[in-house]
Design goal:
Length: 284
C-alpha cells in the first residue's frame, strides 16, 4: 500500500476526456510535469455526466475528517472537467439540462470550497474546465463504425451531439467560473483559436473521433492549464516545488538516511509556508 502522507496530489476529475492515459493525454502530460513533486491522480470516468459526478465524488474525494485523521492524500489542486456528455442532445440518456448542469458544477465546487461541506479542503485549488467543441460528422461516423464492429445489433446510432449545444455547455462553465470566482480553462475557445476558426473541417484535426481529443488537442489543453496554474498560483510551478525524495547525487553516502529525512522535512516546510500564505490571502 502506498503511503498517503509521502507526497501531495493533483486530482483530475472528469469524464472520458479526463480518463485517457494515452500518449500525449492530459494525465500523461501532467504526470510528467509534476514528476516526483506531486502525484497526478486520474479520476476520469468514461460516459459520466455531472449527475453521475455528484455520486462519484463522494467515493473519490476524502472527507475533511478522513483528511484531518491523516487517512487521505492531500490534494493541492483539482480540475473539474465535465460537459461533453451533459451536452448530448435532448432525448439521449446522458443529457443533463443546462440549468441542472450549472447547478451540479456549482455543487461540486462548493463541496471542496465551503467550510460547511463534509468534503471541505481549504488547501485545494479548484479549476473548472469547459468541454471542447465537437465535429458531428466524425462523431457519427465513429458511432456507426463501432455499431458495425459489434455486429450491427439493434437500431443504428443516431447523431447525438450538436455543435451549438456543446458550445452552450462550454460557455455555461466559463460563466459559472466568473460567478463563483473560480479560474476556468476555456478549452472550447482554446481549441477554436488553435484551429483558426469554429468550422468543423478546421476543428477535426484536434479530435480523433469528433468527440475525444487527440494528442494535438491535449497539447492545447495542457499548455493552457500550465499557463493558468502559473498565473493564479505561481507556487505551483514544479520548479518551485521541492522533491520529497532527494536527487540521487545529493544523497550523503556516509549518512543516506539523513538525506532522506532532510528532503522530506524541506518539502513539508514548504507546504506549511504556502498554506500560511494562502490563509493570509483569504483573510485580506
Amino acid at each position: 500500500m502506498a503511503s498517503c502522507q509521502y507526497i501531495d496530489s493533483v486530482v483530475l476529475f472528469g469524464d472520458s476526456i479526463t480518463q485517457a492515459w494515452s500518449d500525449g493525454s492530459l494525465a500523461q502530460r501532467m504526470s510528467e510535469y509534476y514528476l516526483r513533486r506531486l502525484d497526478v491522480v486520474n479520476r476520469g470516468f468514461g460516459g459520466y455526466n455531472t449527475d453521475n459526478a455528484l455520486s462519484a465524488f463522494e467515493s473519490v474525494w476524502a472527507t475533511r475528517a478522513e483528511r484531518e485523521a491523516g487517512c487521505a492524500q492531500p490534494a493541492r489542486l483539482i480540475t473539474i472537467w465535465f460537459g461533453a456528455n451533459d451536452a448530448v442532445v435532448e432525448g439521449g440518456w446522458q443529457h443533463v439540462p443546462l440549468d441542472r448542469f450549472r447547478a451540479n458544477l456549482e455543487t461540486l465546487v462548493e463541496r471542496v470550497r465551503s467550510p460547511h461541506s463534509k468534503w471541505y479542503s481549504p488547501q485545494t485549488r479548484v479549476v473548472l474546465v469547459s468541454c471542447p467543441p465537437v465535429v458531428t460528422a466524425d462523431r457519427h461516423a465513429a458511432q456507426m463504425a463501432k455499431w458495425r464492429e459489434f455486429g450491427s445489433k439493434g437500431a443504428a446510432p443516431w447523431p447525438d451531439r450538436d455543435p451549438a449545444t456543446t458550445k452552450k455547455y462550454a460557455m455555461a462553465t466559463v460563466e459559472l467560473g466568473k460567478t463563483l470566482g473560480v479560474p476556468v480553462l476555456d478549452v472550447y475557445h482554446g481549441i477554436c483559436e488553435a484551429a483558426g476558426s469554429e468550422k468543423q473541417e478546421d476543428l477535426a484535426r484536434f479530435l480523433y473521433d469528433g468527440l475525444h481529443l487527440n494528442s494535438e488537442g491535449y497539447a492545447v489543453v495542457f499548455e493552457g492549464l500550465k499557463r493558468l496554474i502559473l498565473r493564479e498560483w505561481p507556487e505551483m510551478d514544479p520548479e518551485s516545488l521541492p522533491m520529497p525524495m532527494p536527487y540521487w547525487a545529493d544523497i550523503d553516502k556516509a549518512d543516506p538516511e539523513a538525506s532522506f529525512k532532510t528532503a522530506l522535512a524541506e518539502a513539508r516546510a514548504y507546504e506549511g509556508k504556502v498554506g500560511k500564505d494562502e490563509r493570509k490571502r483569504e483573510e485580506l
